[in-house]
Amino acid sequence: MNKLLALAASLGLFTLAGCGSAPPSGGTQYIDPNGQHGIVNVGKINYQDFDSAASSLVQSLINSNAIQPKRPGKPSLLSISRIINETDQQFDTDALVSNIRIQLLQTGKIQTITTFGLGDVQDPLAKQVADKNAFVSNSASGTPVPDYTLTGKILMDKTSAGDVKQSAYIFYMTLTDVSTGTGVWEGKAPIVKQGKQSSIGF
Amino acid sequence: MNKFTSFFCAAALAFTIVGCATVNTIEPADQRTHPNLVPDKRIITNSHLNSIAYASQVTESKVGDLLHVQVMLQNMTVAARNVDYRFQWYDNVGMAVGTPVEHTAFLEGGQTIPVGETATSPAAVTWQLTLAESVEQTPGLNNNPPMHPIK
Predict the structure, then answer these.
(1) What is the pLDDT of residues B22-36, one digit of tens each?
(2) What are B's interface residues with A at a Cβ cutoff of 8 A?
(3) Fold entry, domain A41-195
(4) How many domains would you assign to chain B?
(5) Shortest Cα distance from A128 to chain B (angstroms)?
(6) What ipTM did this prediction achieve?
(7) How does A108-130 read in b/e, with b if 16+ C-beta sit within 10 Å?
(8) Does residue B109 surpass a pLDDT of 70?
């Protein structure tokens, strides 16, 4: 009986302690932003979903070899066009686009233009300086023209069966070669989640 | 109820809970591909994980000046499982390049699938694949086991 009690106590202790790090018990702790410890919601696009979708899209774009150098020895220039959020959630599309820009810049094949874009430019001060320099030097424009533009759309589909909820978020991207006006790459990164947390999302 | 019946009922219940979702696979019998196989070094700390995501083949290729790696993961059990994986890239002096992004692979029982990644920097010359068995997430709890590297 004593042995049985000891075994039960050990098992209980092991169950409580678990194999990984201890869960927060009312407190707050830092977690690996790129790891699997982040909170996942079935009815919401989580931080790690943007990372995963951006990575999948960049991988597809790199592997397609769609980006060709337009000037020998120099990276091609990219501008971000319209990114449409068709989901029921409010978020800054930069959560996706900035991840893509960072990874593409690392490849050395692409540089993004920060002084040219739809609506507000990414860096208005840099645009002012470039325009002023162009005026002083009497050149046509201080703003470089992109070789490629990137546009996209984020779609959503929610469904349920019984108490199981499913959310699908599909990230579409298209790369257009400005010189020809044709789409040279299209990519899709679906994120599909299932769960029973009825209090979240739906 | 005798011992045999009890054991049979328990086994049937366990099988029902775990489920069985194996796949059948068909491919050309003749060798049409010539993969650049890469010898690998493995650190296995979780033998169960190794049976649900066994790295059966490691190949490398180049996409322009970027290194591409592909690992064939084989689920050697009869149950469908999700496995989280990520690639960390390193340059020629062993420094980490870029930030790894975690992905999830879905493996049916007996299925073999490729997982791979292209380095996002030409400086990356080697890599490390880390695998972990996915567990159901409970919001607010970091209830996953630690990841186990294969290098």
Answers:
(1) 899 999 999 899 999
(2) 63-66, 68, 84, 86, 97-103, 117-118, 120-122, 132, 134, 137, 139-147
(3) Rossmann fold (3.40.50)
(4) 1
(5) 32
(6) 0.76
(7) ebbbbbbbbbeeebbeeeebeeb
(8) yes
